[in-house]
Amino acid sequence: MAEVLAEGYNVFDTAKSPSGTIKYLEKPADVIGLIKSGKLKDHILLVRGGTTTFLAPALSMGAIGVITMSGSPESHLGILTREFQTPCVMTASLTTSESRYVVGETGDEHFVEIAKALDGRKVRLECTDHEVGRVVADD
């Protein structure tokens, strides 16, 4: 059985199980750079939160999957991923860490830990469970 690296909220149930290398997109310039590279569909996109509106161009151009480190399925990004039918795991937490996102309490170290652990990993998203989305090692 494949190793589950992270779990979070599943935005919508889907049989799609995209596989790709996680790419952490910290700022709008990162999104533009990835789009210009022509390798958008090779990556599962990792962003900090559900209000990351700068990800919209990537969704409209065929992003295959999204992981957020905060936010809820009702957030702006959650709505957009449903509209574009892009599998999305929100408020993902590492299965090897006790750190969990808490609104208004979580420090930057939480986000740094997740980005460091996941960026560059080859993974598959599992979004068939009604509530829990999983980020599974695929290397």
UniProtKB/TrEMBL annotation:
Protein name: PEP-utilising enzyme mobile domain-containing protein
Segments forming domain PEP-utilising enzyme mobile: 44-97
Taxonomic source organism: Pseudonocardia broussonetiae
GO MF term (any one): transferase activity, transferring phosphorus-containing groups
